Amino acid sequence: MAPRNGFDWTNVSFEEGMTTLKEWRETGVRRSEEVVEIWEHVLSRSPVSLSDQLWLVYEQVCIAALDASRFDLASECISRLDERFPKSSRVSKLIAMRYEAMENYNAAAEIYEKLIEGDPTNNSYRKRKIAVMLALGHYQDAIRDLNEYLKTFLNDNEAWIQLSELYLHENDIPKAMHCIEELIVSSPLNTLFLNRLADMRYTIGGVENLELAASYYGRATALNPSDLHAQYGLFLCSLNLSNHSKALAEKKKESTAAAGSALERITARYQEILSSQPNNPSAKLNLAALQSAKVKLAK
Length: 299
Known about the structure:
By secondary structure, the chain is mainly α. The protein contains 15 helices and no strands. The protein has a domain of 93 residues: Serine Threonine Protein Phosphatase 5, Tetratricopeptide repeat (Alpha Horseshoe). Helix 10 runs antiparallel to helix 11 and helix 11 runs parallel beside helix 13. Pfam families: TPR_EMC2. InterPro entries: EMC2-like, TPR-like_helical_dom_sf, TPR_EMC2, TPR_rpt.
């Protein structure tokens, strides 16, 4: 169902409200304010009419209520679910999520820890606990838990990205690079990962790292010629290599030529933008800066 902005969900029929929530559940749509409206103004008038969907709707409404900071409604839904499913792990997770929403992170972490002990293979419990560790500012604990999590869920790209960002937060660039290298192994055509790894190599600096960074930027531009981030990165790497005192004379010459080629491609891209948007001030400024860089490179 396509979003209907400004639509009054308080006046839909019971059947439409029930069908809409079911569709949103099945497609993963999380329209929290609308879910709360449909529940309070339509479905809550006759919950028993939901039949076998009742408990799924309670769970859906609970999560939506937490998103909307409606803790009263969330508590009501949890109470109903707990009465029907005592000692349920799904209900325990909702209780922990309520603690999270209310910023009682220690209580939430205790529940998630117990849930993980009961079901070590459930990735959602582990992810929620890691989110709690981050909210508490316990970055080392989050790094430890993420490393443990990735031993089981090796192909979770989001987890590798998160771990990489945490290592960068701790100024541990080599370990952050390892995380991105794992991502490139599983997704070798993803230019975002290539650019991230190149950025880190460029940041460390030195001839070897600059050459590696240039190769990653080069792969990214080959995969996506319109990727300006990669084009700029390739230009900067080549420029630095051409001026690096430890680079061989032949390498310096090649780097200067590579920098010039990258500069030409970037310039051409901005000229394309200006041809379709002649009054674009950002494109004009960037083009002027590129012309200046071209003059300096020619000297």
